[in-house]
Amino acid sequence: MRLAATAPRVGLFGLLGSGNSGNDASMETVLSYLRDAHPDATVDVMGGGEPARMRTEYGLDATPLYWYQKFTRRKSGVPQSVLKVLGKGIDVFRTMSWVGRHDVVIVPGAGALEATLPMRPWGFPFTLFLLCSTARLYRTKVALVSVGADTINQPAVRWLSDASARLACYRSYRDSSSLEAMRQRGIDTSRDHVFPDLVFGVPTPPFDPGDPEAVGVGVMAYYGGNDDRDRADEIHAAYTEKMKAFTRWLVDSGHKVRLFGGDSKFDWDVADQILAHLRDYRPDLDPSRASADRVATYAELMRLMSPLGVVVATRYHNVMCALKLCKPTISLGYSRKFATLMRDMGLGEFNQYAHSFDVERLIEQFTEMEKRRAELQQQVAHRNMENQRALEEQFALLSEVLFGTGKKAERVRLAGRHAER
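User: That's the sequence. What structure does it adopt?
Assistant: Structure tokens below.
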């Protein structure tokens, strides 16, 4: 570690700037913390998005996470599979070079230690391990901040993920279920922490109770989890058909439907399919009663959700965004992190799972939520205030651990408090 009198060099690392609004929102929260608490720090990114976008939107220099990214939008004459294999070797040296230029690297939120959606060991799990092992060689501090974790059945993915966690100098999880999952995976969590998801730190617009008739339906290109590859198409078709059935009920009940996704690369097609289905089902339907909105950033997502009365969503950070805006929200998630989040926000009864949700039950949940809308808004607002305070505590702790500032006594107090949450 090369902390000296010069300004600290900080890198942000992950699937950042690549179209997932939740990942970008987590990055924005950490970036705001760094600019407020450590304005002298030099910050850049190694992420999955276009470097030009990172410079334009965030004023950050950016290095592509993968060497082959530069070929995705232009023809090279070489198959993508060959480029990816070749890139794995090149990425070892690229990552080592990038890490060596930093004193601190922060992995901001997201499901960095889980595999609830399909992934291969040589994808992000290998990339995270490469980061953490290289950082150990260079004595660069790596912090996994408010990340998600879960059980992992694939041995190679689990080994890479566990090794990455052990090599990090700081670990915090976005919920108690994640910490417990790591404990069950054999990781010593006695010095780890539980703090809220970083998205709870994103500034929000003034509270708007929304139009009770306007319902946001957040959809996803959902194909099951990492263990469902042989049934992926079947799972996707069943999910889409049930979402069509629910939106039919909404328009028949006099509601206005606003469809949206959470990842600009994958979800638009599902939203467009459902909207086209509604148009076929009700050719006389006023266009203002059903629409599909394309959002690329978390700020756009918040503007879309703000005038809504109730939100039903599948992507984790769409659920998070709705809760951050104090919207009564129903989760149709794909892992236990959704159940934990909804329970922590006092909405545990309004959760189902994407792979098995029942439309009739969803209608019952929605009807109940409409009746209790004002009560639930106040409840979620109170939890939001608590989460904001907890994140402020985490950033004070990070300043001590990563930059040697702050009170050590406070660090010890917080470590004991949050490891037991």
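The first helix runs from residue 21 to 37.
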